[in-house]
Specification:
- By secondary structure, this protein is an all-beta fold.
- 0% of the residues lie in helices and 53% in strands.
- It has no helices and eleven strands.
- Strands 2, 4, 5, 6, 9, 10 and 11 form a seven-stranded mixed sheet that branches. A four-stranded antiparallel sheet has the order 1-3-8-7, with no helix packed on it.
- The relative contact order is 0.32.
C-alpha cells in the first residue's frame, strides 16, 4: 500500500517561512519524480514544484522563494517556502509522478494534503 503523508503546514505571517515534509511508505521512490501541488478554496489544483534526481522545476509564482529537495534515505521530499505571501495560502499536496512534469495527469499517487495559511 503506497502512502504519502504531508506535514509541516500551519499559520504564518506574510514574509515568513515554512518547511513542508512528505514521507512516503510502501515503495521506494528514489528513482521517481516527485512534486508539490496546491489548491486554494474555489480554485483548481496547481503545480508548485517537482524534482527528479538533481533536476528541479518550479512554477513561476514560487520561483526564487520555494525550494524542493529530497532525502532518498528517508524516502521523504521537502518544500522549503520562504518569503510567503497571502496568495500562497492553500492546501499543499505531494505526489509521485511518471515524469518530471507540471501536469496533474502525470501524478499517480497523492498525499492527503496539509494546510498552509499566510496572514497578511
Amino acid at each position: 500500500q503506497v502512502q504519502l503523508v504531508e506535514s509541516g503546514g500551519g499559520l504564518v505571517q506574510a514574509g515568513g517561512s515554512l518547511r513542508l515534509s512528505c514521507a512516503a511508505s510502501g515503495r521506494t521512490f528514489a528513482s521517481y519524480p516527485m512534486g508539490w501541488f496546491r489548491q486554494a478554496p474555489g480554485k483548481e489544483r496547481e503545480f508548485v514544484a517537482a524534482m527528479w534526481l538533481t533536476t528541479t522545476y518550479y512554477a513561476d509564482s514560487v520561483k526564487g522563494r520555494f525550494a524542493i529537495s529530497r532525502d532518498n534515505a528517508k524516502n521523504t521530499v521537502y518544500l522549503q517556502m520562504n518569503s510567503l505571501k497571502f496568495e500562497d495560502t492553500a492546501v499543499y499536496y505531494c505526489a509521485v509522478s511518471r515524469s518530471l512534469s507540471p501536469s496533474l495527469s502525470e501524478y499517480n499517487y497523492w498525499g492527503q494534503g496539509t494546510q498552509v495559511t499566510v496572514s497578511s
